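Structure (tokenized):
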């Protein structure tokens, strides 16, 4: 659908069970907004290029850790890599959100743990009081604020703080990445050692200061990362 629309401002989103999907109603959501989402502007670090041409990268300098899939010899190659990854997360009971952007050419896969932390009482009352359920659009940077107070005090800093609660810790994210790559390889998308060889390539990443990288990599609730933080699209 995103490819057929042929408009980079037309996106599709998906929320899995445990990631604020409508109860007993799994579906895709279509969304048109004529500005880039903050997540689309976040820098990435290339992890690998599969033998079928699909490039997989990791988000950097963004409050929610995630993977970015793009390229591929065909659109089907890209779809296969993402669907294999989603099935893997579902089979391992890992909630996730998906954003399909750039006319279907770029797909963000975002494992998350907000509902789990909420159930365990690990989310601060200040964040809970906002009543924001961080699903795919919120994670992508479009916040729907329910209280007048939150709207009047809206800032990139507050959006960053809320979304940081969604992200997996660095250690857990590495475990999930390993599961995803194992699933892709098992389904035949990484034949001839495509993943292992590509991991030796020089990372393709926008320049960042040491302070930014260190702040990003600390725990599941990273501190504010210095520099420009574009996290909220407020309408």
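Design, position by position:
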């Amino acid at each position: 659908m995103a490819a057929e629309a042929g408009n980079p401002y037309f996106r599709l989103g998906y929320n899995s069970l445990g990631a604020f999907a409508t109860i007993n109603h799994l579906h895709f959501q279509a969304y048109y907004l004529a500005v880039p989402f903050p997540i689309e502007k976040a820098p990435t670090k290339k992890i690998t290029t599969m033998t079928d041409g699909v490039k997989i990268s990791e988000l950097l300098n963004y409050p929610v850790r995630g993977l970015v899939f793009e390229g591929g010899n065909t659109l089907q190659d890209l779809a296969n890599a993402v669907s294999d990854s989603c099935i893997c997360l579902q089979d391992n009971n890992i909630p996730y959100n998906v954003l399909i952007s750039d006319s279907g050419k770029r797909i963000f896969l975002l494992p998350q743990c907000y509902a789990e932390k909420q159930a365990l009482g690990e989310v601060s009352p200040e964040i809970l009081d906002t009543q924001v359920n961080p699903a795919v659009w919120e994670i992508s940077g479009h916040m729907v604020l329910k209280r007048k107070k939150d709207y009047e005090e809206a800032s990139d800093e507050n959006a960053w703080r809320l979304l940081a609660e969604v992200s997996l810790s660095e250690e857990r994210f590495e475990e999930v990445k390993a599961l995803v790559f194992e699933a892709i390889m098992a389904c035949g998308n990484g034949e001839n050692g495509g993943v292992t060889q590509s991991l030796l390539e020089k990372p393709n990443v926008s320049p960042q200061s040491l302070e930014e990288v260190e702040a990003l990599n600390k725990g599941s609730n990273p501190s504010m990362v210095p520099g420009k933080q574009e996290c909220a699209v407020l309408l």
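Reviewer-requested clarification: The radius of gyration is 17 Å. The longest strand covers residues 10-15.
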